[in-house]
Design brief:
Number of helices: 13
Number of strands: 24
Oligomer: single chain
CATH superfamily of the largest domain: Enolpyruvate transferase domain
CATH architecture of the largest domain: Alpha-beta prism
Strand content: 25-35%
CATH class of the largest domain: Alpha Beta
Helix content: 25-40%
Distance between the termini: 10 Å
Length: 450
């Protein structure tokens, strides 16, 4: 069959993706693997850089964001080999021994890099650091991590009274604290815990709901004294800590797998297996919601790899129904809401997404972006202050849509295009490489054009 996907080069800085939907009855089939988990990849590089000895990382995500993390920590003296999926070697400096860089640290588009790194920079006495990012990252709120660090005694300056990057950090010996975070955010929690590694005594973060726990798991594996109180959503690190290099095996990223899981659920005639997916309970909200929508999903070959639960996910196309997505599940699927919005456009009935205002300060305003672009494709979407209301079943039509330079928006629209009548053009689709460098190739493979 002819290729359903054509990539059109517009100029050196931009690629627009044109997708012709597959013929009726041609679904997604076979087995595929997704890139390594982005959250785990970031943390493995960071903890390896501040551990003593050597850390070996297998299955690292090769997207732009982990590259930004590696570049920042190389600039501060950590020895990190060339990034690849096979094995990356990190020779760490030990806690408190990051070197003062000779230039500004650039986190690129990665909020995880910048926010988590601030906890380490603030706790390096006598050293000065300047940090920035691209245009998108410079518009994203940093006060959510600057505030708890200042409560610990950190000295941080930045635009808009420290709320926006670029930021300057004068490293100091920090004090322990108990921080009650107003939002359930793994980035906030991780930043404070990383700062607490150098602090004498106990540093605790309490959240209003459970957020992803990759930092706690990995810190414990590297030797930190970590205590978790699941009932109060609290995590405590006791310092000063000593971390020792480890072997980290990075499972497939469930946030990347979600695109294929939803695609197979909504494209008629599909049966797809996504192998080696991380199914950490703090990340599987997307599976819970799809189950509530009556998706046909089975976890197979469940196992544990380097402290993280892993499984193969089998998905068959099915008739979905609308549901409400809100409350405590939101922190466990915040990155998957754009692709769940696509699923909602074909589900019978109404899907209501609430409590998701956090999406307005991601790489783009994802609520506004998905409402605008799915509406262009004929979906019945109403934007709310903290979410979306989507009436499914109206059908999608090909259109010219924009990614807003947001990787998750770009990939979600690509999946929507598989169901549309006629072709869809996605502007600035190259943004997918931030978290999924071979997304387009995998789309060709899944649809059967290999």
């Amino acid at each position: 069959m002819s290729s359903p996907i054509v990539t059109v080069e517009i100029d050196r800085d931009r690629q627009d993706l044109v997708i012709e939907p597959p013929p009726s009855g041609v679904g997604l089939h076979g087995k595929l693997r997704v890139p390594g988990d982005k959250s785990i990849s970031h943390r493995a590089l960071m903890l390896g850089a501040i551990a003593e000895g050597e850390t070996q990382i297998r299955g690292l995500l090769l997207g732009d964001d982990p590259r930004s993390t590696a570049d920042c920590f190389r600039a501060m003296g950590a020895q990190i080999s060339d990034l690849n999926e096979d094995i990356v070697l990190v020779r760490g400096l030990g806690i408190g021994n990051l070197q003062e860089p000779t230039d500004i640290l650039n986190a690129g588009n990665s909020g995880t890099t910048l926010r988590l790194m601030l906890g380490l920079l603030a706790s390096q006495p006598g050293r000065f650091f300047a940090v920035t990012g691209d245009k998108s990252l410079r518009s994203r709120p940093m006060s959510r991590v600057v505030t708890p660090l200042e409560k610990m005694g950190a000295t941080i300056w930045g635009r808009d009274a420290g709320k926006l990057a670029p930021l300057a950090v004068n490293g100091r010996q920090l004090n322990p604290c108990h921080y009650h975070s107003p939002v359930a955010s793994a980035q906030v929690k991780s930043c404070v815990l990383l700062a607490g590694l150098s602090v004498e005594g106990q540093t605790t973060v309490t959240e209003p709901a459970l957020s992803r726990d990759h930092s706690e798991r990995m810190l414990r594996a590297f030797g930190a004294d970590i205590a978790v109180d699941a009932e109060t959503h609290s995590v405590t690190v006791t310092g000063p800590a000593k971390l020792t290099g480890q072997t980290v095996v990075v499972p497939g990223d469930i946030s990347s797998a979600a695109f294929w899981i939803v695609a197979a659920a909504i494209v008629p005639g599909s049966e797809l297996v996504v192998e080696n997916v991380g199914v950490n309970p703090t990340r599987t909200g997307v599976l819970e919601i799809l189950d509530r929508m009556d998706a046909d999903i089975t976890l197979e070959n469940q196992r544990e790899v380097a402290g993280e639960p892993v499984a193969d996910v089998r998905v068959k196309s099915s008739r979905l129904k609308g549901c409400e997505i809100s409350g405590d599940v939101i922190p466990r699927l915040i990155d998957e809401i754009p692709i769940l919005a696509v699923a909602a456009t074909v589900a019978q009935g109404t899907t209501t997404i609430r409590d998701a205002a956090e999406l307005r300060v991601k790489e783009s305003d994802r609520l506004a972006a998905m409402a605008m672009e799915l509406t262009k494709m004929g979906a019945n979407v109403t934007e709310r202050p903290d979410g979306l209301e989507i009436v499914g079943g109206s059908g999608l039509t090909g259109a010219e849509v924009d990614s807003y330079d947001d990787h998750r928006v770009a990939m979600s629209l690509a999946i929507a295009a598989l169901l549309a009548k006629n072709s869809t053009t996605i502007y600035r689709a190259e943004s997918a490489s931030i978290s999924y460098p071979n997304f387009i190739e995998t789309l060709r493979q899944a649809i059967g054009d290999v």
